[in-house]
Amino acid sequence: KQEVTQIPAALSVPEGENLVLNCSFTDSAIYNLQWFRQDPGKGLTSLLLIQSSQREQTSGRLNASLDKSSGRSTLYIAASQPGDSATYLCAVVDGNEKLTFGTGTRLTIIP
Amino acid sequence: DAEITQSPRHKITETGRQVTLACHQTWNHNNMFWYRQDLGHGLRLIHYSYGVQDTNKGEVSDGYSVSRSNTEDLPLTLESAASSQTSVYFCASSDFAGTSGTYEQYFGPGTRLTVT
Fold first, then answer.
1. What is the pLDDT of residue B99?
2. Contact B116, B17 (CB under 8 A)
3. Averaged pLDDT, B54-61
């Protein structure tokens, strides 16, 4: 059974800093990996999707990497802003398109 | 613009009652999913469907059912609501995106269900 872990569960950093969020998974037979953002009381917004054959994806200040063989992904946020405060979730997709989620990292950017 | 909607957004019901949560998507996606989100457990898959008349059980399907009579809708029914089913429920849909060569799931805004 696939298990996805995100450490730390919570992170606070001053505005302007670069930061890295971590995601690890136990079964490397994944189809792709998605990073989501969730604001309090809201739904999930897809940030980046990395196919299993890719190493990284970039969107603006966000860069996600994938090392499938070691079961790890990172989400890099450059020049953090207070508006980046949210919970970040990673999820891996198996061959049946089912998502297995991590429990998330709650990020707080301190102005 | 295409979207995925859920209704109601908030629901309070009593133990033992039947409850149906609606999910409607205008993406014309074949695949639809229901998840529940709870503190300490993250999001867990309840049921999913790959197309009309197709339904499958997920990780936490006991006490829930779905039916798929058309492409756009996948209603989730709690047959006899229990306090353990108090949660936030999310619906999602996906389809193969030829341009990106992969599947990407899009989520609805969620329904907060309280069972008293």
1. 52
2. no
3. 94
Burial of residue B40 (number of CB atoms within 10 Å: 0-12, 13-18, 19+)? exposed
List, in order, residues 6 or more apart from B91 with CB less than 8 Å away: B4, B6, B21, B23, B25, B32, B33, B34, B35, B74, B76, B107, B108
- Residue from B30, B99, B102 whose CB has the most chain A CBs within 10 Å, to mutate: B102
Closest of B49, B45, B59, B44 to residue B25, by C-alpha: B49
Please indicate whether, in this complex, the C-beta atoms of B104 and A46 are within 8 angstroms of each other.
yes
pLDDT band with cut points at 50, 70 and 90 for residue A97: confident
| C-alpha separations of A93 from A50, A52, A97, B94 in Å | 10, 9, 5, 12
pLDDT digits (tens, 9 = 90+) for B7-30: 999 999 999 999 999 999 998 899
Chain B positions touching A46 (Cβ under 8 A) are: 104-107
